[in-house]
Amino acid sequence: MKTQSLVSKKCEYGLRAVFELARNANAGSMKIQEIASVQGIPSRFLEAILVELKNGGFVVSKRGNSGGYSLARDARDIHVGQVIRLFEGRLTNAESRRGPAADRVGDVAFSHLWKRTQAAISEIYDQTTLRDLVEEETAYRCADAMNFVI
What we know:
By secondary structure, the chain is mainly α.
């Protein structure tokens, strides 16, 4: 299912990478190629993204044959908003940063609308953890599985 994202492609890839690590948290470290393959992220781009995620304290890396990447902390302790802010900075749009210009009729009203909309989006991001996303995906996938119990 393709949907339009409210974040940059880089940020989306970062979210998908930590999501994949959260999904496989019990399996240990994952190699870049594994994450890239499952999530459809170009490997070279993912390398740079994982470095940023590591510098941001979201992932840790382990060298060697059994090495790879894993979450730096429990998926329940990583909120979507935290990851988005790493890549996008503050969660505001251009209208809310400028404030109401009041050059045209409606500027103040629309500026306040954009601020309320952004606040609602930020609240959803800040209340959603990686664990929440993994559980939602698992529930969806399980609901689609055929039940052969008689």
